[in-house]
């Protein structure tokens, strides 16, 4: 922000009343280079002495003020346009961030499911490996028994067949049926 003190310390070039001559004080004797803003704003300055340069100085100051206001308005308009553009860019970034967040949550969910499946598969693989090791130990034991039997040369193959009782009726014991006769009594034989 520009303060009044910096403006007061600046020297002003006062243009002449006719537009033809240049603004250089050495070429135009009506311009007073020793006149500065302190003298213009000083209330003790006598305005009745020479009112020409004071009016020109005021007009110059007003022109500069108008130019500064125009510049400020133009800059403000440019800043507003830039702000609108920035808002649209920020909205686009927010939309992209929302999409990215949704995609990230979906990806995290998928990765979590894959990790669960991987853990289950790992457990299954450990169980299968344990069973395979157990079967391998049993096979080695059988191979050792087989090698021992071959070394002793007592290897015999037994083939047998199981016949189930459902194919043939069970064999019942045979008891002959005898007629009813009375067994001899010991008293009849003695007579």
TrEMBL record:
For bias type Polar residues, the affected ranges are 1-14
Provide a Gene Ontology MF annotation, just one. protein kinase C binding
Keyword Transit peptide: yes or no? no
Could you tell me which residues belong to the region Disordered? 1-33
* Cell compartments where the protein resides: Cytoplasm; Membrane, Caveola
Task: List GO terms (cellular component aspect).
Answer: caveola; cytoplasm
Coiled-coil intervals: 125-152
Q: Which UniProt keywords apply?
A: Coiled coil, Cytoplasm, Membrane
Q: Could you tell me which InterPro entries the record lists for this protein?
A: Cavin_fam (IPR026752)
Q: Where is the composition biased (Low complexity)?
A: 15-33
Q: Which family does it belong to?
A: Belongs to the CAVIN family.
Protein's recorded name: Caveolae associated protein 2b
Species source reads Periophthalmus magnuspinnatus
């Amino acid at each position: 922000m520009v303060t009044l003190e910096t403006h007061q310390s600046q020297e002003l070039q006062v243009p002449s009343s006719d537009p033809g001559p240049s603004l250089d004080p050495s070429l135009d004797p009506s311009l007073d280079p020793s006149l500065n803003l302190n003298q213009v704003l000083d209330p003790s300055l006598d305005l009745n002495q020479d009112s020409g340069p004071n009016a020109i100085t005021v007009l110059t100051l007003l022109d500069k003020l108008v130019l500064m206001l125009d510049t400020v308005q133009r800059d403000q308009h440019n800043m507003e346009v830039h702000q609108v553009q920035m808002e649209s860019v920020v909205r686009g970034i927010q939309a992209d961030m929302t999409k990215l967040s949704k995609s990230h949550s979906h990806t995290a969910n998928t990765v979590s499911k894959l990790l669960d499946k991987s853990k289950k598969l790992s457990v299954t693989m450990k169980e299968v490996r344990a069973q395979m090791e157990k079967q391998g130990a049993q096979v080695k034991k059988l191979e050792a028994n087989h090698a021992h039997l071959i070394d002793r040369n007592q290897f015999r193959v037994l083939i047998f067949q199981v016949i189930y009782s459902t194919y043939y009726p069970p064999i019942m014991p045979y008891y002959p049926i005898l007629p009813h006769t009375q067994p001899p009594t010991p008293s009849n034989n003695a007579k």
